[in-house]
From TrEMBL:
InterPro entries: Cation/H_exchanger_TM, Na+/solute_symporter_sf. One of its GO terms (cellular component) is plasma membrane. PANTHER family: CNH1P (PTHR32507:SF8), NA(+)/H(+) ANTIPORTER 1 (PTHR32507). Gene3D superfamilies: 1.20.1530.20. It comes from Terracoccus luteus. It is a multi-pass membrane protein. It holds the Pfam family Na_H_Exchanger. One of its GO terms (biological process) is proton transmembrane transport. It is found in: Cell membrane. This is Sodium/proton antiporter (CPA1 family). Residues 15-429 form the Cation/H+ exchanger transmembrane domain. One of its GO terms (molecular function) is antiporter activity. The keyword Transmembrane helix applies. The chain crosses the membrane at residues 6-24, 31-47, 62-81, 102-135, 190-211, 218-237, 257-290, 311-331, 337-356, 376-393, 405-426.
Length: 442
């Protein structure tokens, strides 16, 4: 295949990325589904000599591409969330109740259940834990159909998105808020369990090692990530909105690339000091959003991040589809099918339901969900690019005999999630919105 043909395929694929979201808006078909299929078709064409799609051979490239894709998505998610989190207000923490439940209950339950399932199916304990940890986080990249659309601000012409915006602007869809905030935070909070799998594979379990893991990997690095994200976001926000020199007030100039600068600087600083960079980037985005909440600058920053995210997601989906038709699923067996279906259809929904149903918050207040909303929030745990990154990262740190099988199982799970959630997202979310409107007018 000549380079000209590759340019043609890339151009047609980019065109699909531009037109598909609006074209498929009315249908129970997501852009991710179509792009996976397009990639699978392209993968059946003759590929250039030396062009490899073997995940074991190109693991470093996969890690870097997916890492950047997730980071861009996390900054976009942080900027998109309108519900403030004020650290000194108990009510503000309570409004985030679905998020804390999904992170603190649903995700550990999911990891434990999938670890036990893998182990019962004959997978080595460390490999089973790694696969469970890689599959645990929901995805901020592929879950756009069930997430908040972006920051709402008051426009200068007085034609805002909703009512006039003040400092108390909040999300009006608790399902989308819960799924968005969960996806923003659990990409980082899954890291300790990936490190635990690496620890088990390299040294085995012992009380001192587990204690050190809990103190540093589970708590210390998470706290550092949060602090770095808050610090960088606060400094950049003060400069962009309130600097004494006009040349530094980027908000007045409408320069949206600050979001990308913040992303890179935050991730780099967090990794240098030993914190979780994924958590830091999301917190930085939220901190930026928390300042001058009625400024249209937030829309500009979110817009440029969202466009870059779309392009990176396109590339990952196309390559995943191409790899699937070029042997990526070759190591798949019946255990892979059991794991993929169990996670998407049983484990995540049950874990999410358990997390949300115990002492539920009243549905009439922010963070409260009715029965139908709890069911939807529990079910729509989309798996995607973040899962690919974790497996690539861990496989680069330690050699696993089951690596090819894990790649096949991971790919199958992502495909099942993309199609099942993609087909159901539009009708389910539309139905919830109709019921919400009916209750509001009743």
């Amino acid at each position: 295949m000549s380079s000209n043909v590759l340019y043609l395929i890339a151009g047609l694929s980019l065109l699909l990325a531009v037109v598909l979201p609006s074209l498929l808006e009315r249908y129970a078909v997501s852009a991710a589904m179509v792009l996976l299929l397009v990639g699978a078709v392209i993968g059946r064409l003759p590929l250039p000599d030396g062009f490899s799609l073997d995940p074991v051979q190109i693991r470093p490239d996969i890690q870097h591409v997916t890492e950047l894709t997730v980071l861009v998505a996390l900054m976009g998610v942080g900027l998109a969330i309108d519900r403030p989190l004020r650290l000194l207000r108990r009510g503000s923490w309570a409004a985030w109740s679905p998020t804390w439940r999904l992170l603190g209950v649903a995700m550990p339950l999911t990891i434990a259940a999938m670890w036990g399932l893998g182990w019962a199916l004959g997978v080595a304990p460390a490999a089973a834990l790694l696969l469970a940890s890689a599959l645990a986080p929901t995805d901020p990249v592929l879950a756009s159909d069930v997430q908040v659309e972006g920051p709402r601000v008051e426009r200068a012409d007085g034609q805002g998105d909703d009512d006039p915006v003040d400092d108390e602007i909040d999300e009006d869809d608790d399902v989308r808020f819960a799924l968005t905030s969960e996806a923003g935070l659990n990409d980082g909070t899954a890291f300790p369990f990936v490190h635990l799998a690496l620890l088990l594979a390299a040294s085995g379990a012992s009380a001192p090692l587990l204690a050190r893991w809990a103190a540093w990997e589970l708590v210390g690095k998470l706290v550092l990530g949060v602090l770095v994200g808050m610090a960088v976001g606060w400094v950049l926000a003060k400069v962009a909105f309130n600097a004494s020199q006009r040349s530094l007030r980027l908000a007045e100039q409408g320069e949206p690339l600050l979001a990308l600068a913040a992303l890179i600087a935050t991730y780099g600083l967090s990794e240098v000091v030993g914190g979780y960079g994924f958590v830091a980037v999301f917190v930085c985005g939220m901190t930026l959003r928390a300042n001058e909440r009625s400024s249209a600058y937030h829309e500009l920053m979110h817009g440029v991040v969202q466009r870059l995210e779309r392009l990176l997601t396109l590339m990952v989906l196309l390559l995943l589809g191409m790899a699937m038709s070029n042997g990526l699923l070759g190591a798949m067996d019946w255990r892979s099918v059991v794991i993929a279906l169990a996670l998407v259809l049983v484990v995540r929904p049950l874990a999410g339901w358990v997390a949300l149903v115990v002492r539920p918050r009243p549905e009439t207040v922010p963070g409260g969900l009715n029965r139908a909303e709890r069911l939807a929030t529990s079910f729509f745990g989309v798996r995607g690019v973040g899962c690919i990154f974790y497996l690539a990262y861990a496989a680069g740190e330690h050699e696993f005999a089951e690596e090819r099988w894990m790649w096949s199982t991971l790919a199958l799970t992502i495909v099942v999630s993309v199609f099942v959630h993609g087909i159901l997202a539009t009708p389910v979310m539309s139905r919830l919105e109709v019921r919400r409107e009916e209750q509001a007018t009743a």
